[in-house]
Design goal:
single chain; mainly beta; 3-stranded antiparallel sheet; 3 helices; 9 strands; about 10% helix
Length: about 220
């Protein structure tokens, strides 16, 4: 495994249809820095602990009806509970023969967080790949799951306060495949628990003056 140079990475804000090259409401931005969490072990094919990075854009973001921020959760070392929505361009067809044939527009799936004890008892292999800074979510018998191409997508929950906002409680990290490499849609998946890393994220944001803060109206 290797780190991709920032010059080879571009962020596409407000992107919706991957088959449309120039969408009027989307904006591209170069990347100035990528901070990978120091505990992440790219050579470790077993554990997915600390599967998180902070990407710093090369220019200020202007919010629009199509480009909106998502909130960080409070610092929390507890298990994630309730349910959340995952949105991504990953495969909806589970067969490996269709690998590379992703969705052109994002799909949305609402899935429940699963108690760690139940998750790792039900699927021992997930327990060996996880850590206390991750959580399980999904279904084990409904044929619905994240799939190839969804890694890095957020697990969003709605804050139920007077003014509801989306909170990024998790990040899609890993899921089981069968012996043929197909997505196993009848197993839970692993997510990075963002609450564990809020302090680290804030520290990285403070390290760069290129991040511009502006009030969200």
């Amino acid at each position: 495994s290797h780190v991709v140079p920032v010059e080879q990475v571009t962020a596409h804000l407000g992107k919706f249809d991957l088959n449309t090259q120039h969408e009027s409401h989307s904006k591209s931005s170069a990347i100035s820095e990528i901070f990978i969490h120091p505990d992440w072990k790219p050579s470790d094919l077993v554990s997915f602990d600390a599967d998180i990075a902070v990407v710093v854009l090369g220019e200020e973001v202007e919010f629009t009806p199509y480009i909106r921020p998502v909130c960080l959760p409070p610092v929390s070392f507890n298990e994630v509970s309730g349910s959340g929505k995952v949105v991504g361009w990953g495969q909806s067809n589970i067969s490996i023969e269709f690998f590379g044939s992703y969705e052109s527009v994002p799909m949305q799936l609402e899935i429940p967080a699963v108690n760690a004890s139940h998750c790792y008892t039900r699927f021992h292999e997930l327990g060996s790949a996880s850590s206390n800074r991750m959580f399980c979510a999904g279904y084990d018998s409904e044929g619905r799951s994240v799939c190839h191409g969804d890694s890095g997508s957020g697990y969003y929950a709605i804050n139920s306060l007077a003014s509801p906002v989306y909170v990024a409680k998790g990040i899609v990290s890993a899921a089981q495949t069968d012996n043929l490499g197909n997505c196993n849609v009848n197993q839970f998946s692993l997510f990075t628990n963002v609450g564990w890393f809020v302090d680290w994220i804030n520290d990285k944001m403070k390290e760069t003056e290129r991040i511009k803060w502006k009030e969200v109206k």
